[in-house]
Every structure is written in C-alpha cells, then in structure tokens.
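Ops channel
N.P.: pipeline sanity check, posting one input/output pair.
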C-alpha cells in the first residue's frame, strides 16, 4: 500500500501557517438541482502542493463540487479563487486546471500518443513541442513503449496512466481526479496509489481527488474533507480525522467505530468520567471533554484499541463483560464480535494474528472481558 513520506515534526505544513495564502479558495459556494441544495454554502481552503481528497457517500455533493472547480458547473452562489484570481465564471477551457474522469474518456480510434497529444493539437502547439512534451509525459507515467497502442489494447492500469499523462501534458496548476482508481482491481489500485502520490510530489502540483474509498483517501491525502448532504463536516489530515473525529457522523463514517452514549459525571482539565447507557462500569477518559456535568455525549472506541481477556481487569473503569458471538479471520488480524452481558449490544474488537498456526486463546462462546486505555476514547457531541 502506498505510504506518504514521514512528516518532519518541526516543519509546519502550509495549512498550519497563519500567514499562508490558500491556492484554492472556495467561498460560500452553493449549487441547487431541482430546488435541492447539492452543495450547500461550502467554504474550503486548499494549499499549493497538497493532495486533497473529498470523501463522502454517493449523493453528498463531492463530484458536483469537483465539477464546479473544473468549470463544468456554475455555482448559484459564492466565489471560487485559484491562485488569487476569481475563476467563478471563467469557462472550463480557460482555467489552469485539468480533470481526469473516472471513465478516463480516451478516444478509442486514437493511439496512446495521439490521445495524450490531443489537447496540445487543439491549442495549435507546434509539432516539435508536441512530440517532446508527449515523450516527457509518457515517460513520467512509464508508458513510452505503449505509445502506438490503442486504448482497447491496454490494461485498466495502463489506460489510467494514459489518461493521467493526457491530464498532465498541459501543465495545469491543479489536477482534478474523479474516482481515478475505481476501475482497477485491488492490487493494481494499491500500486497505482503509490504511483500517483510519487508523481504529484515530483511535479509539486496540487491534486484534488473525489473518492468514496476511505482507504484510498487515507493513503494518498495530505488532508481530506468529509462531506455529508452538501456540506463539509470535517477537514484534517488522515490521522486527525481517524483519531479525532469531530462528530458521530465522521466517527461512524471513517473506518469502524464502537459508539456508545452516556452522561458526564465529572469534568476536569485532565480527565472526564462518563456513565454509559450500554455498559455497567463508568468510563474514565484521560483528557477534558469540554462539556458540562450532566451533558449527554457519545463515546467512541476503535476496534483495534480494545483489549480482550478472560480475566477481569483491575480497577473500576473502562471494561465490560460479554460473550464472543462471532470471529472473522482476515489473515493479518481477527475481528471479534462480542455481545455485552444482559444487553443486545455488540462490540467489535480487532486483534493481530502474531503467531502462525497457533490456536486462538479466545474462541466462540467464551466469556470475556473487553477493556481499553483511558487515552484511546473519543467523546463526541452531535
């Protein structure tokens, strides 16, 4: 799977600098279809050189927002600035952007090199320059030896790289990607994620991608925006969104999350105590939840942060008793579904399979205790 380079913790990213100017400024943009708000008062800043992903379920407005950036849709309200220039009503062909569609939209009667050169031919670029730029673009995506082939003679991954070369050849300031890897099988998709990230970083371009694939967005993005019903619910790095979701919706949408409800019993600067509705023992959190005592909150715990044992944990907080209802073996990990005592509530826990051919210590119908560390719990409101 593609991995982004390790971050230098001493270096501030562009979006962390108070004086940094956004490269793309989306200001209160709305778009209605048949009276329904598909994009609803969205404001978003994207910085130069970012790989930014818009992530959300079908119908959330992410593709419409991408088409507004491309100039294929005109917003009903709001303003779009690119590199400080108002692009709200600028035609698509005059914008410093290029879009790579999910279908790749390759011309079947043209060869790879003809497809890649098409945009330059339309602009009247000289044959010598076209030849040079086509060669460089195909080299960048490792497609030189396929230059004379037609799209139907290429694999899915090769067609994807051909479409990317055609997108990059016009030297856009921003590359827009609409579900670019959806047509690829899993292994090829993971390999291509790595290629795309490398190309984006090598060229220093700004990539904005629309996807519904959470793993894809988490792997490739410098930051991502989570969308729901035409609005942005949270913007952050993959780590921030996964570890610190700002709402029940984001927590439930990204990855798998066990979510409970409860009432705040005690709130202090360095800890919070919550009485959950579904668990008999209170939950102790090693940080402030910034809510008043008596407030109703949701508590979220990731499956991989839950411990399972046949022995009762020590202490009075952060555990529950239940029975193993189901186990799913996934190779590197196993998923345990545990039904809590005297309830119909189930909790999902994930354990790594560290030993080959070893018999599991915990199996179906075992009585077990689940527990979690106080710093691995997220409190959510709304």
């Amino acid at each position: 799977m593609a991995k982004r380079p390790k971050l230098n913790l001493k270096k501030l990213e562009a979006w962390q600098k108070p004086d940094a100017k956004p490269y793309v400024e989306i200001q209160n943009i709305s778009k209605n279809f048949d009276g329904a708000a598909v994009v609803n008062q969205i404001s978003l800043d994207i910085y130069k050189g970012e790989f930014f992903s818009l992530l959300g379920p079908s119908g959330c407005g992410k593709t419409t927002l991408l088409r507004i950036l491309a100039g294929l849709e005109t917003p009903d309200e709001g303003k779009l600035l690119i590199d400080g220039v108002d692009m709200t009503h600028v035609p698509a062909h005059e914008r410093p952007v290029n879009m790579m569609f999910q279908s790749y939209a390759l011309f079947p009667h043209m060869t790879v090199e003809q497809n890649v050169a098409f945009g330059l031919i339309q602009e009247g670029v000289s044959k010598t320059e076209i030849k040079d730029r086509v060669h460089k673009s195909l080299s960048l995506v490792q497609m030189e030896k396929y230059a004379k082939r037609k799209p139907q003679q290429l694999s899915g991954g090769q067609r994807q790289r051909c479409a990317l070369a055609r997108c990059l050849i016009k030297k856009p300031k921003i590359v827009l990607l609409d579900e670019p890897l959806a047509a690829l099988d899993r292994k090829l998709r993971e390999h291509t994620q790595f290629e795309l990230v490398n190309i984006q970083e090598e060229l220093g371009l700004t990539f904005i991608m629309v996807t519904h694939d959470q793993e894809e967005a988490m792997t490739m993005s410098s930051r991502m925006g989570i969308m729901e019903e035409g609005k942005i619910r949270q913007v952050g790095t993959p780590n921030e969104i996964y570890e610190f979701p700002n709402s029940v919706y984001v927590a439930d949408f990204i990855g798998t999350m066990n979510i409970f409800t409860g009432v705040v019993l005690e709130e202090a600067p360095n800890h919070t105590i919550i009485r959950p509705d579904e668990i008999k023992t209170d939950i102790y959190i090693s940080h402030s939840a910034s809510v008043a005592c008596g407030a109703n909150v949701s508590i979220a715990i990731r499956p991989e942060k839950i411990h399972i044992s046949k022995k009762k944990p020590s202490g009075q907080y952060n555990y529950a008793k239940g029975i193993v209802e189901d186990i799913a073996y996934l190779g590197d990990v196993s998923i345990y579904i545990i039904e809590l005592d005297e309830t119909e509530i189930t909790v999902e826990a994930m354990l790594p399979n560290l030993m080959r051919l070893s018999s599991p210590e915990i199996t179906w119908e075992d009585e077990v205790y689940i527990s979690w560390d106080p710093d691995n719990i997220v409190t959510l409101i709304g």
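N.P.: looks fine end to end. The radius of gyration is 25 Å.
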